[in-house]
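Feature request, filed as a ticket because there's no other form

It would be nice if the structure record came with a short human-readable summary line next to the tokens. Right now we just get the raw output. Example of a typical job, pasted below so the devs can see what we mean:
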Amino acid sequence: MALYEHTFLARQDLSAQQVEALVEQYKAVIESLGGTVGRVENWGLKSLTYRINKNRKAHYTLMDISAPAAAIQELERQERLSEDVLRFLTVRVEAHEEGPSAMMQKRDDREREGRFGDRPRFGDRDRGPRRPREQAEGAAE
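Raw output as currently delivered:
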């Protein structure tokens, strides 16, 4: 069976319990067609870059799936029919990632500062000694 990462966006006015019910419904679809669902991550309510069907936010959910192609096609068909799902994306992968996904990893601001904080900014570099104004004007003539 092929391995997939499936992410879907649910409407902002759904509660967390309703999003969990959607996940359980889609798990049942996958399992009824011979697949299995591994890790399920709820990324929470996040702002969208642009409005989708008058929604400014959406509940993001990631599912790791091991299933035949027919199960994925049925899952996507049901999501297309659902008014609660705004968008979805299924990507075939070689192997599922271990541990939390990039969205769930906590980044430390100090780590980021250590990477870029020691690099001089654009206006901070040393330009060397400056010539006196008389020499600069004399060279231009």
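Something like this underneath would help us a lot:
The CA atoms of residues 107 and 113 lie 11 Å apart.
Residues 16-32 form the longest helix (17 residues).
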